[in-house]
Amino acid sequence: MLLKEQFNMRSFLLIALLLASISSGAQQDSLAKDTSYWKKGGLLGLTFTQVSLNNWAAGGQNSMAINSMINLYANFKNEYVSFDNTLDMGYGLINQARLPWWEKADDKIDASSKFGKKANESLWYFSLLFNFKSQFMPGFDKTAIPMPQRKVISNFMAPGYFILALGVDYKPNDNFSLLIAPLTAKMTVVVSQILADAGAFGVDKAKTDASGNPIPGTGSQTRTELGSYLKFIYKFTVMKNITVVNKLDLFSNYLNHPENIDVNWDVLINMKVNKFISATLNTVVLYDHDINIARDPDEFGVPQRVGPVTQFKEVFSVGFNYKF
Questions:
Q1: 135 φ, ψ to 5°?
Q2: Does 19 have pLDDT greater than 70?
Q3: Band (7; pLDDT cuts 50, 70, 90)
Q4: Residue 266 to residue 285: CA distance in whole angstroms
């Protein structure tokens, strides 16, 4: 019970802090003097869903869900230099009547900065990009129902991904960007020693003793890769009040199976009803050859398998959205 209360309190405080920080930042930006070189703004979203059933013959479960989303950008551009900064964060919770606790439904931190110097009078820029991805809260193994028995399978900075990429960027306008970086360093960080010892997220697992038993504390907490990186961003308007943001990241490790391409494809669709009400659809397709996932046996008799597999996430929300 104490664990449930602590988890719920931490989660709701986190959402409240996110909303308060963005509100404060928006007010400060509105007071600051703008220039023609900077474009700043963002999208703040908060949705709540509740289902209540009583003697419902068709079946179902009572449930509640809350999701929050923040997308910020601050971009500088003049005749010779561009400097693009984005911060995307999301966090959501869901509670079903059969469970005495809230489950995490969405959890994302994605920060990126890209500096470019224009190459002569062309549309190409010599660019340097830094990207960071992680999450806020722990994730648990879904196979064990009682919360005290569930093991943590992820956490803040477990994993954390850092990318530093040097290359060229094609930017014909503010809505299109294609970064090609043949010199890229990618670091995976797993601060949890338990997860590091298990070899989670591609780090080297714990060493073993003479009997073949793992030695606690010997697993590597970092993994560094050198390779090539491609980042594609395309924003467009489908029709009035419907906008789409496409982000595609591809990475290949030069030194270890360069044919295995890490893929992260993120699509955000914003459908605006009025100034404060809109719907958002966010989908993410992820593939990383270094992440092993246990798949349950299927109805055709295929046993449980462990290995890399395409991951997919979809979050659809209708509620309060504020664009600034």
A1: -145, 170
A2: no
A3: very low
A4: 7
Per the CB < 8 A criterion, the answer to whether 165 and 128 are in contact is yes
Q: Is the peptide bond before 159 cis (omega within 30 degrees of 0)?
A: yes
Indicate the pairing of strand 305-307 with strand 103-118: unpaired
Q: pTM to 2 decimals? A: 0.81
Find out whether 244 and 268 touch, Cβ atoms under 8 Å.
Answer: yes
The predicted structure's pLDDT at residue 300: 55
Could you tell me which residues come within 8 angstroms of residue 74 by beta carbon, excluding any fewer than 6 positions away?
38, 39, 40, 85
The predicted-structure confidence for 307-323, as pLDDT tens digits, reads as follows: 788 899 988 888 888 88
Select from 182, 93, 175, 180 the least CA-distant residue to 140: 93
Q: How far apart are CA 233 and CA 274, in angstroms?
A: 26
Q: How do residues 212-236 score in pLDDT, each as one tens digit?
A: 899 999 999 999 999 999 999 999 9
Closest-CA residue to 161 (of 199, 135, 132): 132
Q: What is the 3-state secondary structure (H, E, C) of 264-291?
A: EEEEEEEEECCCCEEEEEEEEEEECCCC
* Gap between the Cα atoms of 11 and 68, Å rounded: 11
Q: What's the mean pLDDT when you consider all of the chain?
A: 84
The tokens describing 29, both together, are 């930006």
- Select from 115, 157, 105 the least CA-distant residue to 133: 157
Q: Report the chain's terminal Cα–Cα distance, integer Å.
A: 40
Count other C-beta atoms under 10 Å from residue 32's C-beta. Answer: 10
271-302 tens-digit pLDDT: 988 888 888 899 999 999 888 777 666 655 55
At 196, the amino acid letter reads A
Residue 151 DSSP code: P
Of 136, 141, 140, the closest CA to residue 156 belongs to 136
